Amino acid sequence: MLVRELVERFEQFAPKTWAEPGDPVGLQLGNLDAPVHKVLVTLDVRPEVVDEAIRQDADFIFAHHPMMFHPAKNLDLSVPQNQMYATLLKHDITVYGAHTNLDSAPGGMNDWLAAALKLQDTTGLVPSNGSTATPDIMMGRIGDLAQAMTVVEFAQYCKEVFHVGGLRVISRTPDAPVKRVAVLGGSGGPFYQAALAKGADAYVTGDISYHPGHDMLAAGLNVIDPGHHIESICKPHLTQLFQEWAAENDWPITVQASMLNTDPFTFL
To answer: What UniProt keywords are attached to this protein's entry (predicted)?
Structure first.
């Protein structure tokens, strides 16, 4: 089969036009008309992931984070990122990225995160700015825990759910009850007002920076930052989704999730 066949099926599930403006989703490198026999699903496309794909004889890398957030200014192969592009081309590996369109897709990234937290009665958090997104296509989710717990207890719960070695807590009321929870994968700091407006007791997202953290404190919102890498939850879910489509369509491909941890941070 061709890469195009899997991509076209995926884009029915999460159209590129649902991505936020300027988000470089879609084909990153290679050719949609290239043959595909083995798919490697990853959060990030890093040199070690490319090496893994080569070891596994994968000819298609499907990533959540686009490989080319910033275009290359040259092709100096002493730059590791440029050498990675050269290695991909040398081994005829096609790369595709699905970012904020997957974040907004029903049954996609933020539903997976909400399900991991066991949130009930979830609804969307932030309307998508995608060019064809309808009002029901939204990034983030908000819902209720089965039982309330304190901010500290909830932070520990998030640590266990997402298997992280550490996380950051923004709160002036660590003993306050948490029942209603908003979650948004990735860097969700700019959207905390939506969590407040929808009555969240706590907001789970990554990459909170210093000054927005002060603003959240002033607003009285409890925030749990378990890091951006919790989006690696996409790997088993996408793998299962692609395997189901392969079975339905009799595609002669195998699909596996990357076994590598691409989180750049280590907690000491």
So the answer is: Metal-binding
